[in-house]
Amino acid sequence: MINEVRNTVLSVLNKNNYGYISPSDFNLFAANAQMEIWEEYFSSYNKTIVAENQRASGTDYADIESPIAETLETFLVSKNLTNFLNNKYYVPSLTTTGDEAYYLLKVLCYPVVIVSGTQSGGEAINSLIDITKNFNNYGLVPGDIVVNTTTKLTSTFVSIISPTQIVLSSNIFPTSPPTNDGYAIFQAASLTEADKVSLGKITMLNASPLTSPSNQYPSYTYEENKLELYPSTIKFPNQVSSVYFRYPKTPKWTYTTLLSGEPAFDQSQPDYQDFELPNEDAYKLATKILEYCGMSIREMEVTQFGMTQQAHEQPTFSVQQ
Known about the structure:
Number of helices: 6
Order of helices and strands: HHHEEEEEEEEEEEHEEEEEHH
Largest sheet: 8 strands, mixed
Number of strands: 16
Shape: globular
Radius of gyration: 26 Å
Helix content: 25-40%
Mean pLDDT: 82
Distance between the termini: 25 Å
Structural class: alpha+beta
Strand content: 15-25%
Strand order of the largest sheet: 1-14-4-11-12-13-3-2
Number of domains: 3
């Protein structure tokens, strides 16, 4: 879609010889335009909910809530969080989960740790051996979560071979050469949502045995892009995950340069990135980019054209109602 949008923008600009927008400028304008439209989806969704509560929203083909929700849900992801110090975890970011979090919807955790320790050497494929443990004593259930706390790889418990060896659904412990990685096994059935608590209240809650967070009712605080989980026994890698809306990826129109110097669209480039918005937003993207172009080349007619077209645009599911 990004090439079609760029061609539309250049066609409007070239019609009256307003000027030329370089690929680098177009990419900057495209990123800003996408963010504007994407953030409008949240306010549009809120307005449709209000309209629905006021019985002013239709059903069937007149249902405008579902398409907006479906678009937003394409940006909804769930990923494990990385702990950096005991019960403190990083919020989703490019360095930890591969994408930035726009809004944390919920924080989930496995508060019940069945057993933890260090694997013994000489591991077999798809298994965990710990000669210091008797796995028959822990009540393991197929599906319980097994984490290599050294490499942060995750698998699930399948069965018990012997008191000191269990079978896993995948191979997360090295066999050649054997290592002494740490491990932890979480009770899958204990998965629950942690409640967000303000920094001003958590001290008071922890001070009382009646209100302090527990395995049944865990909590977390949010400070400086870091989460702190309670009770403090929630401290292992992959013990905590987050469901969140991620930011859309930054669009980038990539190209190869011809002998004449004219850039030619080339989506095979490794840094190519198309718009992540639905195709019906192509018109809005073009008009918003034209606004930026008008300001860049100091042509108010271009800016006014983009604004006028948006004002007269027929209502769509992606437009604020």
